[in-house]
Design a protein that fits this description.
With about 260 residues, the chain is α/β, with parallel strands linked by helices. It has a single domain, classed as P-loop containing nucleotide triphosphate hydrolases (Rossmann fold, 3-Layer(aba) Sandwich), CATH 3.40.50. It is about 35% helix and about 25% strand. The strands form two sheets. Strands 6-7-8-3-9-10 form a six-stranded mixed beta sheet, with helices on both faces. A four-stranded antiparallel beta sheet has the order 2-1-4-5. Strand 1 and strand 2 form a beta hairpin. The longest helix has 17 residues. The N and C termini lie far apart (about 55 Å).
């Protein structure tokens, strides 16, 4: 069941997918996917391993060709206008694509130079500031935590100001603190007007970040709507008094945060 977007959302779509199908030999991975993502919004594509999330991202970023159906990104057809699509997007995969020998700033300067942008140093400094990495900018990336590497990876993907960014399971393997750091970075992207398509297996990640959530199962979109719209698909909850207990994540972050503050004093 899909909750249709409004006419305004369709008109403002940065990503538009209709009837997308893809098979690998005898295995049907996508079975007619329809999807719209509004400009400047975050859509979480939620699904288990093998659901087809990464295949959709690869098609939208022109790394794979669909068997049938159409897909547009930033108004350009992924098949007929692949070069224009690549100019409009950036892809951050499941593992941080950073050079550990270089410093954080050197990584950013390198990518800016490869894209033939003027003022690579100023671009690097602005992104370090934007992602709270200024103090770590002169350190080798080999010394960074997982969350810092992922934030640097996302910062690198923003060089050139692409209007659309794909984040393919960006917090896989990260600890709770690092995940929250990445969540904050992703939220800043949308606040700056970037359209984000986020794939994830984590329910809490979709709840925290997404304006709309699409659930992909066995190559089909089962539902697509806001969190409140999806909740309304289930029977009304019975109201009961339950004493709320802190979660393990609450305990972990409180203890680690308290220890960090004490060490800094």
């Amino acid at each position: 069941m899909s909750i249709p977007p409004t006419s305004d959302q369709v008109e403002q779509a940065a990503i538009r997918v209709q009837g997308l199908e893809k098979s690998f030999k005898q295995v049907k991975v996508l079975r007619g996917v329809d999807l719209d993502v509004a400009r400047g919004s975050i859509l979480a594509l939620l699904g288990s391993n093998g659901a087809g999330k990464t295949t959709i991202v690869k098609i939208l970023s022109t790394l794979l060709k669909p068997d049938s159906g159409t897909a547009e990104v930033n108004g350009f057809d992924v098949a007929a206008q692949a070069a224009k699509v690549r100019e409009s997007v950036s892809l951050t995969g499941q593992f941080a694509a950073v050079d550990e020998i270089l410093t954080g700033r050197e990584n950013l300067v390198l990518v800016a130079k490869l894209r033939h942008l003027s003022g690579p140093g100023a671009i690097a400094d602005e992104l370090l500031r934007r992602f709270s990495l200024t103090e770590a900018g002169s350190r080798r990336v080999a010394t960074y935590s997982g969350g810092m590497r992922r934030r640097l990876d996302i910062a690198m993907s923003l060089i050139g100001n692409p209007p659309v960014i794909f984040l393919d399971e960006p917090t896989t393997g990260l600890d709770p603190e690092a995940r929250i750091e990445v969540w904050q970075a992703v939220k800043k992207l949308a606040e700056g007007g970037t359209t984000v398509l986020l794939t994830t297996q984590y329910l809490d990640e979709a709840e925290q970040l997404a304006d709309r959530i699409a659930i992909l199962h066995e190559g089909r979109i089962l539902v697509n709507g806001t969190l409140n719209e999806l909740k309304q698909l289930l029977p009304p909850a019975e109201v009961e008094y339950v004493e709320k207990q802190p979660t393990l994540e609450d305990v972990f972050l409180t203890l680690v945060g308290a220890k960090t503050e004490k060490e800094q004093q």
